[in-house]
């Protein structure tokens, strides 16, 4: 088991509600100059969850599961900005009101721009939910550190999920982290350069068909753990040759230039001490038995 400082990591409660879909009234234009009108970010998304393909949907920037906010009117202000920072992948979400009261879900990550946290609930639970339902998040994870690997930094990751990711030391000074996909640095787009990674995401650009085929980007699923090669997320999202970052997929492919599946940062090593190990089941749905791999919902 990886040694961490998790006994010192602060645990709190925060509350939020499902965020209604945010759809503008006008046409958008894709990277080929083709106009489109499609569903987008936000909502209680009934038929999309972790484990599902992030490609091929009749939508753009689709967020799986339930998109949650603590301030729908002012998404960049208190208390939603606190929720965005404190909520971590793997945190428990519990519904406190409405027909689905008492049911639980799992935080997947957060999406910048919409300023939503993405929470996975079973479909039958989502069918019972409304936009005034109160959801309590047991936030825990920011400040988590690896005691034996201090040069590998962690963000937005709960201790419980970390220990289930099947990460193994290589016997020297590196960690082998299972991922479904290795993304080249040249594909990282929207969100690149943001000065911190404790909230939001950045996108894998998918506008070049040959690159998509070469790196199998069109096989990415919601909830996949992916490796971002030559990217350092230590103090912002930046290109650094030899660095490796690990993230989780939080939204779908996109048609706009500079966009694609969204990645929330979980781990980073500027010195390349993370070794990606390819595993088609390196997905939060497979690890926790949720989303499309779950036969029964709670």
Describe the structure.
The chain folds into 2 domains: about 130 residues, Thrombin, subunit H; about 140 residues, tm1086 (SG structure) domain (tm1086 (SG structure) fold, 3-layer Sandwich), CATH 2.102.30. The chain is mainly beta. The chain has a 6-stranded antiparallel beta barrel.
Q: Which sequence of SSEs, written as H and E, runs from N to C?
A: EEEEHEEEHEEHEEEEHEEEEH
Number of strands: 17
Give the termini distance in whole angstroms.
Answer: 29 Å
Poorly predicted runs: none
CATH superfamily of the largest domain: tm1086 (SG structure) domain
Whole-number tally of structural domains: 2
Summary tags:
single chain; 298 residues; Thrombin, subunit H; tm1086 (SG structure) fold; 2 domains; 6-stranded mixed β-sheet
Layout of SSEs?
Layout: E1 11-18, E2 28-29, E3 35-36, E4 66-69, H1 80-86, E5 92-95, E6 104-111, E7 116-120, H2 123-126, E8 135-140, E9 153-154, H3 159-164, E10 168-169, E11 175-179, E12 181-183, E13 202-203, H4 209-214, E14 225-232, E15 238-251, E16 262-269, E17 274-278, H5 284-288
In short:
This protein has 2 domains: 133 residues, Thrombin, subunit H (Beta Barrel); 135 residues, 3-layer Sandwich (tm1086 (SG structure) fold), CATH 2.102.30.10.
């Amino acid at each position: 088991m990886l040694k961490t400082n998790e006994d010192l990591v602060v645990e709190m409660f925060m509350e939020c509600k499902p965020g209604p879909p945010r759809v503008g009234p006008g046409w958008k234009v894709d990277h080929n100059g083709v106009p489109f009108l499609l569903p987008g970010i936000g909502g209680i998304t009934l038929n999309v969850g972790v484990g599902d393909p992030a490609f091929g949907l009749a939508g753009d920037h689709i967020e799986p599961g339930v998109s949650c906010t603590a301030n729908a009117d002012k998404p960049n202000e208190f208390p939603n900005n606190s929720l965005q920072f404190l909520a971590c992948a793997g945190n428990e979400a519990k519904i406190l009101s409405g027909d689905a009261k008492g049911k639980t879900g799992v935080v997947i990550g957060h999406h910048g721009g919409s300023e939503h946290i993405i929470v996975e609930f079973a479909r039958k639970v989502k069918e019972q939910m409304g936009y005034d339902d109160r959801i309590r998040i047991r936030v825990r994870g920011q400040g988590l550190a690896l005691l034996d690997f201090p040069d590998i930094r962690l963000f937005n990751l709960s201790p419980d999920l970390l220990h289930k990711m099947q990460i193994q030391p290589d016997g020297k000074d590196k960690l082998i982290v299972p991922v479904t996909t290795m993304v080249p640095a040249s594909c990282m787009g929207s969100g690149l350069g943001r000065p911190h990674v404790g909230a939001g995401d950045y996108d894998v650009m998918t506008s070049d068909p040959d690159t998509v085929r070469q790196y199998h980007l069109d096989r990415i699923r919601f909830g996949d753990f992916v490796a971002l090669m030559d990217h350092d997320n230590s103090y912002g999202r930046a290109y650094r040759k030899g660095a490796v970052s690990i993230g989780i997929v939080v939204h779908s492919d996109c048609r706009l230039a500079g966009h694609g599946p969204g990645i929330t940062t979980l781990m980073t090593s500027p010195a390349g001490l993370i070794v990606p190990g390819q595993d088609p089941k390196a997905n939060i749905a497979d690890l926790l038995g949720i989303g499309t791999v779950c036969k029964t919902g709670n």
